[in-house]
């Protein structure tokens, strides 16, 4: 998912909670009206699909870029590192920006940045240029994703539940379609996915510019301090969750970013493989995670899912010589990752009294460090030790994340409280899957 994430800046409070602690509250009741939305909502939803596609778009073309530009696997994996580092640091300031210039301007600036840097990446003549342009792309995605959900909720008809379903649908489509589109376009040329993204985002920019009107009666959100996310990490619960997420994200991005190399498939084969991964992740994040947290404490879900992910990563290492089995473990890993992404971010939103946009910004900035380090580190481990070594190292890293959650359980008591409002759950799904 090059990883793109965001805090949900200035998201309005949800008026209702889920009945019985499960499901999406008013979402099912509003399903009848989900298709009857203003054009502005469809414009933002379309752009959201494209933005989330960036999570897995470059995955199928990594080997092709390495071959065409005579780059090493480590150099190629830096496409993830530059993107994630900039996204993480940008997340520290997106709520500060959007609370001052408004949602529409933030969305448009983010989209414009993506268009420019995605097109520039497609025109690159060497891997160093692509690495640099991917960094700029990360800035644009941080600005856009951080504002999209709040915008859809504010403009949608049929209530909050209808807006949440629409946003989750956009998120799931983007995660699943990204690798597939990357594989299809990458089968023609490694430049294709970059130009395709630039063109689609340009359409999204025009749609939002024309269709998203500012409500003159809408109250501007209270400006947040630029230092707020850094200060937030002083909270013990948030520090525990951010530390666990840092090591967990190493496992996430070893599975996503390193796996194209040992698989040995062409761009199309990799596209279909990670399409399956994306579908699995989307299904469990949107449907399975809420069912689990409705039946057991969130920390217990983490105690089960984190070791399970470590087992999947170790199994991938043992299956390194069998591409078919490696594909199976990648897809199974997607199932586990979907649960973990959502539950971890739900915990972040419930762990403190901090403004949710501030808490998720701080959390995302720390966890992206793990995502930024993992891809090139995995390539170097494979070169220096063996092809399966990155998976074993990733499994160990996820076990460290498990240990952090277990040892920090006293600080996390609050996250096992009653079910949160439906909008909070949608924020958790959005922020978690955008990683």
From TrEMBL:
Stored SUPFAM superfamilies: MFS general substrate transporter
Primary location recorded for the protein, binned into one broad class: membrane
Entry's transmembrane regions: 40-58, 78-99, 106-123, 135-157, 164-188, 194-212, 237-261, 267-289, 301-320, 326-344, 365-385, 391-408
Cellular compartments annotated: Cell membrane
Pfam families per UniProt: MFS_1
Membrane topology recorded in Swiss-Prot or TrEMBL: Multi-pass membrane protein
Name of the protein this chain belongs to: MFS transporter
Organism of this sequence: Agromyces allii
């Amino acid at each position: 998912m090059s990883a793109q994430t965001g805090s949900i800046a200035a998201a309005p409070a949800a008026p209702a909670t889920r009945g019985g602690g499960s499901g999406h509250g008013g979402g099912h009741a509003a399903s009848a009206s989900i298709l009857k939305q203003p054009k502005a909502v469809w414009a933002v939803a379309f752009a959201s699909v494209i933005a989330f596609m960036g999570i897995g778009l470059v995955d199928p073309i990594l080997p092709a870029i390495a071959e065409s530009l005579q780059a090493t696997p480590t150099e190629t994996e830096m496409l993830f590192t530059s993107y994630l580092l900039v996204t993480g640091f940008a997340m520290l300031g997106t709520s500060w920006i959007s609370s001052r210039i408004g949602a529409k301007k933030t969305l448009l600036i983010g989209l414009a940045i993506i268009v420019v840097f995605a097109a520039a990446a497609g025109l690159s003549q060497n891997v160093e240029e692509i690495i640099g342009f991917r960094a700029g792309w990360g800035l644009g995605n941080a600005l856009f994703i951080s504002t999209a959900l709040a915008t859809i909720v504010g403009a949608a008809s049929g209530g909050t539940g209808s807006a949440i379903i629409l946003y989750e649908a956009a998120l799931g489509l983007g995660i699943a379609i990204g690798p597939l589109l990357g594989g299809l376009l990458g089968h023609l040329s490694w430049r294709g996915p970059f130009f395709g993204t630039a063109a689609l985002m340009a359409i999204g920019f025009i749609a939002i510019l024309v269709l998203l009107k500012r409500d003159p009666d809408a109250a501007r959100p209270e400006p947040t301090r630029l230092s707020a996310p850094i200060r937030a990490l002083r909270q013990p619960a948030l520090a525990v969750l951010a530390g666990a997420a840092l090591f967990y994200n190493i496992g996430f991005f070893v599975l996503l970013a390193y796996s194209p190399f040992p698989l040995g498939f062409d761009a199309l084969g990799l596209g279909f493989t990670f399409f399956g991964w994306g579908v699995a992740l989307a299904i469990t994040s949107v449907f399975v995670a809420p069912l689990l947290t409705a039946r057991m404490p969130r920390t217990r879900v983490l105690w089960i899912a984190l070791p399970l992910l470590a087992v999947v990563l170790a199994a991938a290492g043992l299956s390194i010589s069998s591409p078919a089995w490696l594909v199976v473990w990648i897809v199974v890993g997607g199932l586990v990752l979907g649960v973990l992404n959502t539950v971890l971010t739900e915990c972040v939103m419930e762990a403190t009294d901090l403004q949710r946009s501030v808490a998720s910004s701080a959390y995302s900035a720390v966890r992206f460090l793990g995502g930024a380090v993992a891809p090139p580190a995995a390539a170097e481990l494979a070169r220096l030790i063996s092809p399966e070594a990155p998976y074993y190292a990733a499994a160990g890293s996820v076990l460290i994340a498990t240990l952090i959650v277990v040892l920090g359980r006293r600080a996390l008591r609050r996250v096992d409280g009653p079910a949160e409002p439906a909008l909070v759950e949608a924020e958790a799904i959005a922020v978690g899957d955008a990683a």
